[in-house]
Design a protein that fits this description.
It is built from four helices and four strands, in the order ββααβαβα. The chain is an alpha+beta fold. Strands 3-1-2-4 form a four-stranded mixed sheet, with helices on both faces. The longest helix has 16 residues, at 61-76. The chain is globular, with a radius of gyration of 14 Å.
Length: 105
Amino acid sequence: MLTCNDCNAVYIGETGRSIETRVKEHIRNNTISNFGRHLSENQHTYNKENTKLLHQYNKGYKLLLLEALEIEKIKKNNKYHCLNDQQQLNFTPIFQQILNSNHNK
């Protein structure tokens, strides 16, 4: 999870590369990266101490699912502003019910 140093904006992502490499790509590619664009357009900063590894898992479907779950958690937390594009995730009704019940605990 990447967190803006100057506001409550966060970005959830997954990668098979090192976190340092991926963060540099986000910042360098500020026209296609929502996190990089946020920093550039708002003249905000990033501090690597604000990076949090949420899960360590092999790439694949399970990692994508974990990413989607973390995005859902951030969206429901009024403390953060989620920068991810994929905020409209199409979960099955049973899966959405599980998400909602876990959020209320």
